[in-house]
Q: What sequence folds into this?
């Protein structure tokens, strides 16, 4: 169970503090929307596996290990061990390198080779340049046809953000389905 407590009293009643109790599975949805701003989080009786999952979520939100340790109430050494044991750095890097950024770099490489060719008289390519263009074009074709896990996560986050504005309950339901779908694709 996750408890949220508003960091400041409400304007209507200076002695009242807003407290919200949320189920654990709503945490990723709340984190992705930064809905915790102005609130203090209280993690009550979390099991170790839940602490690891929460730490991972916070780590993927680019929170420092010291901040994560303070929020969850465990040592920085434990966070550091989890980062290394579960390869969180590698996973976070793979989520930040998007297919779109790779495609953009590949298109820039083709443009650079074509610019070198265009500056020649006559503007003809060498066999090495032709091979390079073909290899890059094949890589682009493959990337444009395949969906990676990062793509699935990116689309699901965009979809959940969109549906959340229309129907919060449906967004919560869909969030659980997307989580199950993503976990199934990890196997």
A:
């Amino acid at each position: 169970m996750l408890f949220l407590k508003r960091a400041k009293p409400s304007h209507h009643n200076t002695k009242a503090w807003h407290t919200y109790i949320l189920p654990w599975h709503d945490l990723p949805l709340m984190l992705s929307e930064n809905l915790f701003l102005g609130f203090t989080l209280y993690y009550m009786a979390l099991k170790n596996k839940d602490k690891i999952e929460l730490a991972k979520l916070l780590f993927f939100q680019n929170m420092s290990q010291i901040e994560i340790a303070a929020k969850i109430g465990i040592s920085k050494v434990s966070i550091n061990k989890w980062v290394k044991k579960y390869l969180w750095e590698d996973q976070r890097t793979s989520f930040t390198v998007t297919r779109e950024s790779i495609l953009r770099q590949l298109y820039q490489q083709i443009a650079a080779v074509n610019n070198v060719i265009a500056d020649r008289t006559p503007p003809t390519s060498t066999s090495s340049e032709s091979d390079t263009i073909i290899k890059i074009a094949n890589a682009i074709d493959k990337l444009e046809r395949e969906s990676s896990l990062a793509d699935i996560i990116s689309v699901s986050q965009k979809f959940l953000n969109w549906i959340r504005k229309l129907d919060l309950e449906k967004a919560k339901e869909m969030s659980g389905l997307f989580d199950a779908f993503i976990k199934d694709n990890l196997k």
